[in-house]
Amino acid sequence: MTLDPNYITHYADIFITKVIEYSPKIVSAFIILFVGLYAIRIINRIIRKVMVKRELDPTLSKFLADILLWVLRVLLFVTFIDNLGIGTSSFVAILGAMGLAVGLSLQGSLSNFAGGMLIILFKPFKVGQTIEAQGVIATVAEIQIFVTKLITANNQVIFIPNGTLSNGTIINYSMQGSRRADLTISVSYETDLKKAKEIIASVLSSNKKVLTTPEAEVSVKNLTDNSIQIAVRPWAKTEDFGQVVSDTLEDCKLAFDAAGIQFQPHVTEFSKTIQ
Known about the structure:
- Helix content is about 55%, strand content about 20%.
- The protein is α+β, with helices and mostly antiparallel strands.
- β3 and β4 (about 155-160) form a beta hairpin.
């Protein structure tokens, strides 16, 4: 079988004609694409700076900037397709059908997206605050579109889906700016209770990180079979809370040792049975 040179020349001419015919469209489409990507980057940067100057919430600023970025990218892609000569009406219809199918298959992700919107709008917590949620106590590092990034005290990174997070119980330890420690110190029945309470009150008053308002509480909490339980409830700023708890326990132990008062270990019913 031999190829007719005339056929080759004919189809080559058609190909060259089409290339010449569509070259301006292709070139203009790619120019629009590259210029558009550069313009989107500049617009996104300007929008972020404007929101920072307006002192908007950092989480809300990032969220809105990300949404704007993807909206502009989609519009640019549709414009790029249109300049290539592809009908945008049919493309939009296909895109809509694909969006419906993807939406049905990603219901969980859409729930997380809605959860992220609720978190940003109602602000149960902000970046930098310490919260307890889903059995985890950690500091909020970042609120993303679908998940919230938390960092624990031992530097573990935890990602919680926003849908689960927004529908669950959230304890915000930082929102009020101060926290109360609930400590229990047990002493024997032979202990001079008034003296023990005075020592604890003196320890609290000497600690500069313990807040004077609200006033710390030192009171009898419970009378067990083998000890008197004293409730020690000092207030501290959120950032000083851990240090105040540690200092209170340590200083009370040292003060009790100096006064000849011993801590009374709590004996559980289980340990009594073993004995």
